[in-house]
Amino acid sequence: MATFTYTAKRSIKSGHTLDVDYVIDIELMSLDGEMPKPEKKESRSLGGNTVTVLHRIDTEISVTTDYIESDGSGTPDTDDFSEFFNSVAGGEQFTFNNGSDQTCEMVSMPTRTRTGIKFNYSFSFRVIE
Prior knowledge:
Layout: E1 2-7, E2 21-26, E3 28-44, E4 50-65, E5 68-69, H1 78-87, E6 94-97, E7 101-115, E8 118-127
Antiparallel strand pairs: 1-2, 1-6, 3-4, 4-8, 5-8, 6-7, 7-8
C-alpha cells in the first residue's frame, strides 16, 4: 500500500477544505523506482576535451495506481485524484510513502487509462533530498 499526502489547493473535492492536508492510500500496479537522473551541462572544446558541470542528481519514481471506481463508490475515487494532481501541479510538494516518507514534487502530469467504469493513473515524481 502506498500513501500520498498533499495539501488541497485546487479542484477541491466536495467535503474537503482548502489548505488542509489529505491522504490517498492506494495499491500500486507498478513502481519503477528511484532511478537517478543527473542534471548536468557538458562543454566540449575543439580539441575534444570535455568539461562536465554536475548540478544535481535527481531521483525519479514512476508509478501506476491500481484501478479505482469512477462512480464515486470507492475510496479513493477520481475526485480525490483530480484534487491531488491539480493541487501539486504548480510544483507544490507532497509526501510519498511506500515504506518510508519521501518529500516529492510532480515531474509529469498523469495519464489516465479507463477499463469499463474503472480508471488507473500513471505519473512520475521527483524525490526532494
